[in-house]
Amino acid sequence: MIRRTHKQAGLLCWAGAILIAMATADVVADDAASSRSEALYKVQDGNKVDARTLQGWKTWRALACERCHGAEQEGLVGPALVNSLKVLSKEEFHTVIMNGRVEKGMPPFNASPMVNENWEGLYAYLKGRSDGQIKPGRLSAIE
Description:
The protein has 2 domains: 1-39; 42-141, Cytochrome c-like domain (Cytochrome Bc1 Complex, Chain D, domain 2, Orthogonal Bundle), CATH 1.10.760. The protein is 57% helix and 4% strand. It has helices at 6-39, 51-62, 66-69, 81-84, 90-99, 113-130, and strands at residues 43-44, 48-49, 140-141. Strands 1-2-3 form a 3-stranded mixed beta sheet. The chain is globular.
C-alpha cells in the first residue's frame, strides 16, 4: 500500500486539475477552430454560396486559375488545390497568392486589385471545394 503525505496528495490533485484544464482548453480551441471553419463560407445545395465566396469563385474564373490548377481544382501543371487547402492555413494561402511560387511557375498576384479585394473569398471558395461542400462548376448566390 502506498502512503502519501497530505502535501503529496495535494500536489497530485493540483497536477490532475491542471491536466484536466489543459485537455478542456484543447477541446474548446478545437471547437472554436471548427466554428471559424464553418463560418468561412455558407453553401446550399452544393452550388449556392454566400456573397464573399461567390466573389472568390468569380476571381478564380477571371484569373483563369484553372489553366494550371484544373477546372475542378484537381491539379494540372499546378498542384491540386482540393488537396493543398486541407493543409494550407489562411495565412499561408495569402502569402502564396500574393508572392507566388515563382520557382514552381506560379506568378505573384499582389499587383492585382481583384485579388487584393477578394483573396479571402477565393480562400473560402477553395476551402469549400477542399472540404467537399462546394461542388465544381457554376455557382450562384444564396437567395
